[in-house]
Amino acid sequence: MSEEVSIRLPEATEAQALLTLMDQLQQESHTFSLVDADEPLSAAQEADQLVQIQQSTRHLLLVASVGPQLIGVCSVAPTPQGNVGELGVAVAKAYWHVGIGTALVDEALYWLETASDLQAIGLEVQTRNVPAVKLYQKLGFERTANPATTVIDASGQSVTAIEMVYQRHSAN
Questions:
Q1: What CATH number is given to the structural domain containing 109?
Q2: Residues 38-70: tens digit of each pLDDT
Q3: How much is the pTM?
């Protein structure tokens, strides 16, 4: 890839671009879906959330961009367990398989180790998404003891998923 990719925190002024990217990602992948997709946010609401997230040690939102164009997103949000964050990552299809997802997750793990008060980051990954499972294993995620579950993907199909977790190493 000849273009320079930047991994960074999004600016509040990019709220509409981020919402547009999220819509695009949902259309391009059956493995990416938004929890609150039925209640879309306005650009102003998204901008407010971006400001709040940047002030949190329990929430993270990163974007990947080429120039001003947003091409990927990575989020960490606390789970009901309290000390574990849930990871979500997606990259625009035109940029698949060039290391952007790896860079986003790697940056989220660095944040966990250096700036967060969470103890771990977990995720649920569809077993058919073999590249993602291999990526998470390469970065230090381990499969939990919980049995595989069935989830409904973005197209409404039932698929098998497993839980994986990355434990923080530092004594932060």
A1: 3.40.630.30
A2: 566 666 666 667 666 676 778 899 999 999 999
A3: 0.85
Residue 80 pairs in a beta bridge with none
Q: What is the mean pLDDT of the chain?
A: 86
Residue 164 CB-half CA count within 13 A: 20
Sorted by sequence, the CB contacts under 8 Å of residue 144 that are 6+ apart come out as 122, 162, 163, 164, 165
Provide the sign of the torsion angle of the four alpha carbons 29, 31, 32, 38, taken in this order: positive
Assigned domain for 138 exists: yes
Has residue 41 been placed in a domain?
yes
Residues whose CB is less than 8 angstroms from the CB of residue 169 and which lie 6 or more positions away in sequence, other chains included: 113
Tell me which residue has tokens 């400001």: 51
Strands (E), 79-130: 84-91, 120-126
Joined together, the tokens standing for residue 155 give: 């197209």
Residue in 61, 84, 80, 81 with CA at minimum distance from that of residue 167 = 84
